Amino acid sequence: MFGKSKKPHLIEVSKLSSLIAEDVEITGDIVFGSGLRIDGTLKGNAMGKDGDSKKEKSLLVLSDKGRIEGSVRCYDAVINGTVIGDLEVEHFLELQPKARVSGTIRYHKLQMEVGAGVQGTITQVGGDALRDNVVELPAEKADKADKAERARSA
After folding, report:
1. DSSP state, 64?
2. Angle at Cα 19 formed by Cα 13 and Cα 20, nearest 5°?
3. In principle, which of 34, 41, 129, 134 could form an S-S bond with 14, CB 3.0–4.6 Å?
4. How far apart are CA 94 and CA 54, in angstroms?
5. Beta pairing class for 67-69 and 122-124
6. Dist CA 81 CA 104 (whole Å)
7. Contact (CB, 8 A) for 35 and 62
8. What pLDDT is attached to residue 1?
9. Which of 42, 107, 113 shows the shortest CA–CA distance to 71?
10. What is the CA radius of gyration of the chain?
């Protein structure tokens, strides 16, 4: 009755087949397939491969120690480090508490935790971005709501 309901996972777990360790700095662009975890520094772009028939869905995980100075484009991303550049995530973007992003963010679905920081523009793309968040009241109900609010204020 009062049990916790399980939320469905929005990111499909894929293999993190590559790791840039904490003491590694790479200068240049990286193109990755299924999964990439960055604990070190990347001075360049990180681009997930476009999978054939969407079976290959790229996942980028940037740890709290990780840093990217360049653009990122992938299917899913979990960011807890620093990104200085644009971030384009086709499906689901999770910004964890230590995430710091300076640049334009484009996403389809976003989860942003308390503490995450963004300096730039955040834009939702695809789907019914605004329509899902807007509730229209008929004029009659809106008038009653306005009158009730004014009565409480008085």
Report:
1. T
2. 140
3. 34
4. 20
5. unpaired
6. 16
7. no
8. 45
9. 42
10. 20
pLDDT value, residue 23: 94
Residue 27 sits at φ, ψ, to 5 deg, of: -115, 115
Compute, in degrees rounded to 10, the torsion defined by CA atoms 92, 125, 71, 8: 0
- pLDDT attached to residue 115: 95
Query: What is the four-CA torsion angle of 134, 135, 141, 147, rounded to 10 degrees?
Result: -50
Residue 117 and residue 80: Cα distance in Å, rounded?
10
Rounded to whole angstroms, the Cα distance separating 118 from 127 reads 23
Query: What is the per-residue pLDDT across 80-121, written as a single tens digit (0 to 9) for each?
Result: 999 999 999 999 999 999 999 999 999 999 999 999 999 999
In terms of residues, how long is the chain? 154
- To which H or E segment does residue 148 belong? helix 139-153
What is the C-alpha separation between 57 and 150, in angstroms, rounded? 52
Single out the residue of 89, 70, 63 nearest to residue 29, CA to CA.
70
